[in-house]
Amino acid sequence: MASRSRMISFGLIGLAIVVVTGLAADAATPQGNVWPYASRHGESGSFTVATVGDIACEPATAENASTPAALKCSNVGATGNTLGGLPAEFATAQQAYAMHPDRVALLGDEQYEVGKLTDFEQSFEQSWGGLKMLERPAPGNHEYYSYTKHKDNEAGQNGTGYFEYFNGHTQAGTPNSQGQAGQDTGASQGWYSYNVGSWHFISLNIECMSQPFNFDCSSTDGGLLNQETSWLASDLASNDQPCTVAYWHQPTFSATTAPSSNLPDPSAPGVGSGEGLAADAWWKLLYDAHATLVLNGHEHVYARFKPMDPSGKFDPKHGITQITVGTGGEDLDTLARTGSSFDNPNVVTGQDQAFGVMKLTLKGNSASWSYQPALAGPLATDPTAAMAYSDSGSVKCQGEDGNSNDK
Asked: Deepest of 89, 170, 291, 313, by most Cβ within 10 A of its Cβ?
């Protein structure tokens, strides 16, 4: 459309203003493209949510000179190094971008090695920043390190850099108390909920082994995690959407833990981490509320589980399907297997050889997922086979009928 202009003259002050019309409409409506960020899928009753965690490598900057070289973005390809580095995080970001998502659910550890604001700005922002206004994050342990993890001089963050990045901050560097990462206050550390179509999403903070939580992972003693658990119960009680998804970082059920004398049952709740055990209380609330999906990161693999009850038993009628998507780009872990079988018998399928993002497509009373790798890992034994992996399926939302029909 050609622009049109007209001149308005204010003779008393000798001021002329040119008013341009026609351009605003063109800028607000990209030609031949209703994304970003109009809900293209929402217009037909379908929404897309890109889902992944464990994403951005530590930038090799002067500020990070004291941290181990093995952890840096630039160390991709070093002997025995599983780091994906910048190539991996850019590959997964472009994969998510190509989905034209309505929302992006981030499952924690968005920024390594310790999630300070400057690292977010120099790594995560470079790859995933184009989707920032669609991102709905949960924090991970790397955003909450309160100690010197690798015997270096890097200061712990306790969530400050995470909230500064996603919520914005004052000129003095104080995070805003509200924003897309939830409330950052003494009584709340960023748990929140939102709706996508008929689906209710709940983002939770499981980083109870941190200073803001007083290193207290009890959900019954009146501490901050108990306050969060009470909030979750209230949120579920007031939710009027028929379909519910919850996500946080450390999974309750592990795909990477092998049986041992101390851990004889890898399918038990919390076997992979203390934080995962603390989230057992959330599973019970979500199960009673007929939630459909739980999404986690932390384990740097892709793994889909059978529908389970809170004790980890297969429950095809009322169970919640857990999907771990920790393949955002930082590095890769190893699935626990004995021969060709997963050590956790509830794991249906998984891969640990490549990085990738899960596409979650939501409709009125059902969801479907599709996972395909974006880049083979640096130690992939067979890169071609790694890239050929895929997983897809669908589930009906539990609603009040409690019938998941997981496929």
From this structure: 89
